[in-house]
Amino acid sequence: MSQSAFTIREITEKDNPGIARAIRSVFEELFDPIGYSKKGTAYEDVFLDRLYQVYQTPRSVYFVVEKNGEIIGGAGIKQLDATKENICELQKMYFLPKARGLGLGAKMIGLCLDKAKEFAFEQCYLETMPFMQDAQKLYKKFGFEYIDEPMGNTGHCSCPVWMLKKLDKISQQKST
Fold first, then answer.
1. Structure pTM?
2. Which residues of the chain carry a pLDDT beneath 50?
3. Can you give the CATH number for the domain in which 81 is found?
């Protein structure tokens, strides 16, 4: 199945239940079989059921991937909590199995990083799990590098892999 069979768009309020269900499903699929605790992860975020509202703040955006009316993934960027630095966080990037392996992750990271640059962030931070090797390979392709300690206050104390990317500025060329 190609990317063209999917719609990528900004989240709407009616998407809240679908994206929350998709994210929780991914956690259950990946964490439960290996006995990894979901405590201290996005699975337990108190705002997971209201992502639309969370991303209505300035300099933030969340995209969903939809197929035939079903939300099957998403990703967003937002100012990194508890920091005064000009750093955003790539957040809540999860895809159901039917959306994987089709280039949608790369497309979503590209969209989020473009928005981060548009919002004039200087760096983009993310947290992930050690066993999410495919995701880490993708992040590295986009220029994310491993760092030695967490940044900000994401509330995800169980995510021990931290990565950071310096963002290039968008050139402000005048059209003639």
1. 0.89
2. 1, 172-176
3. 3.40.630.30
